[in-house]
Design brief:
about 180 residues, mainly alpha, three-stranded parallel sheet
Length: about 180
């Protein structure tokens, strides 16, 4: 793990630009502006590895002295922690669906195998019987397609997003006054 944090810098004219203007919550619980979130998350994705992140919010000196500016670090931590909890719930729900789908798929597969055993005795080796047997075997395996897809592929991107949001929720946030001509 790197000791030098990956730095994400955001330059704003006012502290309110960081937040969704339609969210009536107090500032420390307010949603981030969609573009601000996209910018921060996008830069965090660009920083390779699992090392520390740091967010520096640069504001004009007058804007740094407002109450809103003082709430920025807590609001950012709260926002990304809340998003991480939502994504964690999404992952848990996907895995719950996967287990249910697997139970159903295995039951269908077992029923198909039992039907194939019955058909092999009942229809001996007729062409129609073999066609029906092969169709049932295919049906049994197709019934397991979704759980296999969930457990082999679908959960990885959600887990990766969860880990990124946790890193963002834990990153140090610093609010700085702009040096010079930020307008």
């Amino acid at each position: 793990m790197s000791t030098t944090p990956g730095v994400i810098e955001v330059h704003l004219k006012t502290a309110e630009q960081l937040f969704n203007s339609f969210d009536p919550s107090p500032f420390h619980e307010r949603d981030l502006d969609e573009e601000a979130e996209r910018y921060i998350v996008g830069w965090a994705r660009e920083i390779k590895g699992t090392g520390r992140l740091q967010l520096i919010v640069t504001l004009p000196e007058a804007a740094c002295k407002t109450g809103v500016a003082r709430h920025i670090p807590g609001a950012i931590h709260y926002y990304f922690n809340t998003r991480a909890l939502q994504v964690r719930q999404e992952l848990r729900e996907l895995l719950r669906i996967g287990w249910r789908s697997l139970a159903i798929g295995l039951a269908v597969l077992l029923a198909c195998f039992l039907a194939v055993q019955y058909m092999s005795v009942a229809f001996s080796q007729s062409t129609t019987g073999r066609l029906m047997e092969q169709s049932l075997i295919i049906l049994g395996w197709v019934a397991n397609w979704r759980p296999l897809e969930i457990f082999l592929y679908d959960w990885w991107p959600i887990r990766r997003r969860l880990m990124l949001l946790r890193r963002l929720a834990e990153m140090p946030v610093e609010v700085r006054a702009a040096s010079g001509g930020l307008s």
